[in-house]
Amino acid sequence: MRGTAATVTVGLIGPSRIDFMRFSLRRSRKWIIRRFHCWYSPMTSTGGSDSEPMPIISFYILFSQKKRIYFRGPLSSFVTKRDVYMAGLEWNMKVCDIVVDGIWMWPPNIWSKAGHVLQLFQPTLKEGVRDKIQWRSKEGSMVDCVVSNMWKDLYFDHPVVPWYKLIWFSQGIPRHAFFLWLAARERLRTLDRLGAWNISEDKVCVLCNNGVESHSHLFVECCYSREFWRCLEGVSGIYNLIMGLFGAINSWADLVVELSKYNYGRSIWSVVHRLVFAAGVYFLWQERNNRRYGDNHRSVVVLARQVLELIKLKLMGLKVNNNNQTRRAAIIWDLEVKNGCFVAKSDSVDDGW
């Protein structure tokens, strides 16, 4: 429905800036309950600039068929129902009844008690405008009130890391992506990091029993890991994706940087490359934990086989284009393409992975 709209601007007040949210309140006979919050985090907060925001204003504006106005929350702590009654206001008043030329016309007793709050919201009545909620960005422009726009303003801007496409993609396995993200940031609890916390534990790598366990050793230098990567590449069809870089890199960080330079698009091999790498990192870390905290030791061949079986299951049902690259991938992974998807072959047999 269309009618007279009142625009209310509500702000998010932070330590260093004020972000505003503007609400258009429509004057019609069919209103819904709207709940608006204004949050602030004081500059003197002991939590610093990243502390949780605190509610300073919280109120309901209820427009039903009676079109009444009702405030609830901290505002009611100093503007009570008695104040509203003593001011001669009716509960079924409309927004336009207390707004003249875009200015609130609150009675003096309410204005004296809540003027410093009410003046934050300057309504603008517009004939024939539909209700909508807008967000004022930190650049000052009015944009759609959606989560993505709020996220950009309420969270600090961080530089885009070069490896984000290597880790985050729609066909990825979330568990593997999360551990690869930790590894790319070198935040896995390897023993070289635990040593900084004065934790007395043998720092020798449990995969090869040679060398101090670190991200670089665990995923690049360890002879067990190198044989594992070689086994994966030889069967999955991603020849020399990882092993071809070992002669030109010196650390795990270098490997991540070099792999991030690939042009990851929508081709099937772009997906397979990243699935294999993320799964390899995850299973190497899993094997490390099994050996350090348990008795379950798997050989390189067994570990690689489990990775390949898992990725094959992930590929099954994946929507693909029927082209030469897809058909080649289907042959290598013992699959076939039907109706735009990878499916298992009806005559598939154990291929000895």
From TrEMBL:
Is this entry keyworded Cytoplasm? no
Pfam families under this entry?
Answer: zf-RVT (PF13966)
Keywords, A to Z, come to: Membrane, Transmembrane, Transmembrane helix
Q: Which InterPro entries match?
A: RVT-Znf
Q: In this protein, which residues make up the domain named Reverse transcriptase zinc-binding? A: 147-229
Transmembrane ranges, per UniProt, are 238-255, 267-285
UniProt-listed PANTHER family = DUF4283 DOMAIN-CONTAINING PROTEIN (PTHR33116:SF76), REVERSE TRANSCRIPTASE ZINC-BINDING DOMAIN-CONTAINING PROTEIN-RELATED-RELATED (PTHR33116)
Identification of the protein by name: Reverse transcriptase zinc-binding domain-containing protein
Q: Which organism is it from?
A: Centaurea solstitialis
